[in-house]
Each structure stands twice: as C-alpha cells, then as structure tokens.
C-alpha cells in the first residue's frame, strides 16, 4: 500500500493539475506573497541592532574610522551627514577601544597639552602665545560640553602687562558656538558661557565676553552682557508685558476678543552715580577746641590819614590819646558724619511706555472702558509720574481673516481625515485581498483533497476474505456500492467486478452477520467513503487473523 506522504503528494499534484488558469494564477500570487513576506520577516529579525559609535565627527575622523571598520569587517551605517557612525550593538565597545588606541576621534583643541611640547629655548613671545592658545583650547573644550553645543571656539584678547595702572587695559573674549541641529541656546546657557569664560581670565568681567552662534546671531555683546542689545531688551520687555495683559484680558473678555500692543522706551546709557551726605551727631564731643585772647593798654597816636588819589599825603588826624585793645578768638572742631553712596545704573531702564488695547465690541457686557483701563494699568505696572499712557478702545473686530483661517484649517483637517480614511481602506483592501486569496486557495485545496481522498482498494484482498464469491463479467453497479469502488485500479492486483460482490452479499442475506455488515458498509459508503475503506480493511484483518 502507498505511504501517507506519497498519497498526500499525489493528491496535491492532482489538485494542482486540475486548477484552471485563474486558480493557478491566484495560487502562484498567494505563494509568492507568502514567500516574500517570510523573506522580509526573516531579514528583519536577523538584522542586528545598530548603536551610535561616535557622533559629531569631522570628515577626517569619520573617514579614518570607516577605514578601520572596513578593515575589521564590521558593518556600519552613516547618518547626520556622515557625522554619526552606527555599528552593531555587539561591536560598539570593541571598536571604541580600538579607535581610542589609534587616537580617534582627534581633538582640534589641544589645550594644556601644547605646553608639553615647549622647549627651553622658547622665547617669551612664544611662551605667552602658547599659553593663550592652551587657555583657548581648554575653554573651548569646556564650552563644548554644554548640552546643545556641538563645537565651540574661544578667542582671547589679553593686553600686555604694564607698570602704569592707568594704562592697563581689560581683557576681552569672543566665543563662537555651533549648536546641534534644532537646538537654540537659552539665556541661562549664554550666561553660563559668559561667566565661565570671564571667571577663567584675570580682570575679565562677564560683560567683556561676546557670544555668537553659527547663524551670526549675537547672543552676548561686549559691554552689554548676555541679555543682548538694547533692541532685544526692549522687545523682550514688550513681549513680557503684552503677554501678561493679554492673559488677563483673555480671562475677562474671552479669547480672541482683545489685542494688546506695548511700546517701551528703554534707557540705552549706563553710568555710575555717587552721592555724599553730611550730618552732625547729637551730643557728640568735639574733636578739638582752641581759644586765643589779646589785650593791649597804653597811649597811642590818633588815626592817621591815607594816601589820596594823587598820592598826596592827607594831613594826619587828631592828637595823641590813651587807648585799650581786647581780642578773643575761639576755634571748635566737631565730628561730622559723612555718607557716600555709589550706584551703578545699568542700561535697560524704562523711560516711558505706552499700551494700546482694542476690545471687540459686545465682549464687554458687564464692564466699561474705565474698568478695563484700571485692570490694564495694574497688570502692566503703569507709572503715571513717569509719563506712561494706557489707551483702551472698544471696536468691532474684522473676523473675515480669522473665519477664513478657521475654514482653511477645517478643510485641512477634513482632507487629512479623508487621506487617513483612504489609507485605512487601502490597507484593509490589501489585507482582505490577501485573506481572500488564502481562503480561496484553502477552499480549492480542501475540495480537491476531498475528491482525491478515496484510496484505491485492492479487491484481491476481498477475494481472499470471500473466496466463494464468483467473478461475473460486468453487471450494473449499485449506486450504494459504487461509492466504494476505486477511481483507478491498483497495479498488479486482481480486478473483480463490484456487481459480483453485490450478488454474493445478496446470496448470503440469510446470514445475519453478513447482512449487518452490508448495511454498515452501505451506511458508511453513503456518509464517508474513506471510513468505508478503513472499515473494510479492519474487517479483512479480523478475518485473516481468524
């Protein structure tokens, strides 16, 4: 008897041969889709997980490291314009150790290592220049460690020392920073850079450091500090005040019913003001006290005249007489309190500010203009003595642009939703088509397998079981018995007509056992031909064992 595997292969081949052209096309497409999906899944599962080996590399370092990876046969991927090298996670540490042993990635800022190469014959100018370069390299490396800074370059302007204090200049520094893509340095980070640089150089203040980014934006100017120029200060102040007033009005009149504009006049100059005040302490002792007394008694001449306008002597006065002179002088020095107050006035003060507020008509149902003016004045810190002005007007807003923007936004949302729906439908259609193809293939295969599941029965075995059954020529087949007839005669077997089997069974109808077996065979043949064949084989095995 044929083995189950060969029978299954035979049935599968017969089923495929019986397919129509359309069925074969669908089956081929389904098998191809399954094979491609399996290959893609296997490739994705077998792909290693990549981890950054180095990032922010220069072109020279990236080329050298790539050559090393190619020599070692390690797969790699490049990203961020070649500045980042990705390698499998299992090889990242080994490759980092190899790169470090080769001095990669190389640093463009040597720092204090420059001093190691100085010889004893170096001139004073070479020593000072090398020391300044070392400071610049160390500062650049430190600034580059700040989050968001990709690379940094520091340049120092240090004046030469002089014995004249009045002629001693102050050092300045300029810092150029290149930030990582999509990153902007905050004001606190800029202040950190200025303070870090100024604290590293003697006699340098934070206002003596200029910070510029790769886009050419001045983040900190010399003499101004990290807060930016006067225009930037005024803009920041106006935005801050406008945001405070706008937040308050949105809560009062509703969002979109008020608009605020702030204009501030900032002080551009800075200076130092010194004030001195004196006061006398109460009941305080004198610092020192002195007195002088003069007294004269005796005869003397009278008053004499004076020279006239023409240098002619005027005749003397009266005659001589007695005279007395007394003089007393007293000097007292008291302690005096002296107070000196020095105030540095920085740039950025407010000379005057004006605020204009427009409120949508009808939004102030329970409020009047005076109440809104008081609210705005309090929120903005208006100082009338300084000349600040607040103007609040109730106007009808033009909402045409806002409505058009809202309509455009709604259309965009609708288009996005339709695109997402179309993509979902497309995905579902693809999945449904694949499932439909798979179901059709399974149904066709099941039907073909059910048709071909009938195995050929060697009726020679039946003849061995029933030797008394004759083999008549070819009577008509009974439909009930025809179900168990083989589709193809088995090779090298004795063919026997099924009609003879039917005649033999009818002749042995008196035998109750044979009649029961016939009824069972008829019932099994009508329900399941495969089970009928199995039943016949088991019956023949039982008879042979007897």
TrEMBL record:
Region feature (Disordered): 272-296, 314-334
Domain of life according to the entry: Bacteria
Ranges of residues in domain Flagellar M-ring N-terminal: 46-220
Sorted UniProt keywords: Bacterial flagellum, Cell membrane, Cell projection, Cilium, Coiled coil, Flagellum, Membrane, Transmembrane, Transmembrane helix
Biased composition (Polar residues): 323-334
All copies of domain Flagellar M-ring C-terminal, residue ranges: 249-397
Record InterPro entries: AMP-bd_C_sf (IPR045851), Flag_M-ring_C (IPR013556), FlgMring_FliF (IPR000067), FliF_N_dom (IPR006182), YscJ/FliF (IPR043427)
Location within or outside the cell: Bacterial flagellum basal body; Cell membrane
Any one GO biological process: bacterial-type flagellum-dependent cell motility
Membrane topology reported for the UniProt record: Multi-pass membrane protein
Entry coiled-coil feature ranges: 392-425
Record field: transmembrane: 21-45, 424-446
A Pfam family the protein falls into: YscJ_FliF
Main subcellular location of this protein, as a coarse class: other
GO MF entries: cytoskeletal motor activity
Gene3D superfamilies associated with the record: 3.30.300.30
Family: Belongs to the FliF family.
The name this protein goes by in its record: Flagellar M-ring protein
Annotated source species: Arthrobacter echini
Lineage per the UniProt record: Bacteria, Bacillati, Actinomycetota, Actinomycetes, Micrococcales
């Amino acid at each position: 008897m044929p083995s189950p595997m060969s029978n299954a292969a035979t049935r599968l081949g017969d089923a495929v041969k019986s397919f129509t052209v359309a069925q074969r096309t669908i089956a081929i497409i389904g098998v191809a889709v399954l094979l491609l999906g399996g290959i893609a899944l296997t490739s994705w599962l077998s792909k290693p997980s990549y981890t950054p080996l180095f990032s922010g590399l220069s072109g020279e370092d990236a080329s050298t490291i790539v050559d090393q990876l190619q020599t070692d046969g390690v797969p790699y991927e490049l990203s961020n314009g070649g500045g980042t090298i990705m390698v499998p996670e299992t090889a990242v540490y080994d490759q980092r150790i190899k790169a470090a042993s080769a001095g990669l990635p190389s640093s463009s800022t040597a720092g204090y290592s420059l001093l190691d190469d100085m010889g004893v014959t170096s001139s004073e100018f070479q020593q000072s220049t090398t020391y300044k370069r070392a400071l610049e390299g160390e500062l650049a490396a430190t600034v580059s460690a700040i989050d968001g800074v990709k690379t940094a370059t520091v340049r120092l302007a240090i004046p030469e020392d002089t014995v004249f204090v009045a002629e001693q200049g102050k050092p300045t520094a300029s810092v150029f920073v290149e930030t990582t893509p999509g990153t902007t340095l905050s004001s606190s980070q800029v202040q950190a850079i200025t303070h870090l640089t100024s604290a590293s150089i003697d006699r340098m203040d934070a206002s003596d450091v200029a910070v510029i980014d790769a886009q050419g934006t001045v983040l900190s100017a010399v003499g101004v500090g990290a807060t930016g120029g006067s225009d930037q200060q005024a803009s920041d102040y106006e935005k801050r005040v406008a945001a405070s007033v706008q937040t308050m009005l949105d809560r009062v009149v509703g969002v979109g019913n008020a608009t605020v504009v702030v204009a501030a006049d900032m002080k551009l100059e800075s200076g130092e003001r010194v004030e001195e005040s004196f006061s006398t302490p109460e009941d305080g002792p004198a610092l020192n006290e002195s007195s002088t007394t003069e007294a004269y008694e005796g005869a003397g001449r009278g008053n004499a005249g004076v020279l006239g306008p023409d240098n002619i002597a005027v005749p003397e006065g009266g005659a001589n007489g007695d005279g007395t002179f007394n003089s007393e002088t007293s000097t007292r020095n008291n302690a005096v309190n002296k107070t000196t107050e020095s105030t540095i006035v920085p740039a950025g003060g407010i000379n005057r500010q004006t605020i204009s507020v427009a409120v949508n008509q009808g939004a102030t149902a329970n409020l009047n203009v005076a109440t809104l003016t008081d609210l705005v004045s309090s929120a903005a810190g208006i100082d009338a003595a300084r000349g600040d002005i607040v103007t609040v007007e109730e106007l009808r807003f033009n909402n045409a642009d806002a409505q058009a923007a809202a309509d455009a936004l709604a259309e965009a949302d609708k288009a996005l939703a339709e695109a997402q729906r179309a993509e979902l439908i497309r995905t579902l259609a693809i999945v449904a088509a694949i499932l439909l193809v798979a179901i059709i293939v399974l149904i066709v295969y099941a039907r073909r397998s059910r048709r071909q599941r009938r195995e050929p029965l060697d009726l020679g075995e039946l003849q061995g079981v029933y030797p008394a059954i004759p083999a008549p020529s070819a009577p008509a087949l009974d439909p009930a018995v025809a179900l168990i007839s083989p589709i193809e005669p088995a090779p090298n077997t004795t063919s026997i007509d099924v009609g003879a089997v039917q005649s033999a069974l009818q002749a042995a109808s008196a035998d109750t056992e044979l009649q029961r077996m016939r009824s069972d065979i008829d019932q099994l043949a009508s329900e399941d031909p495969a089970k009928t064949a199995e039943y016949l084989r088991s019956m023949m095995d039982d008879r042979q064992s007897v």
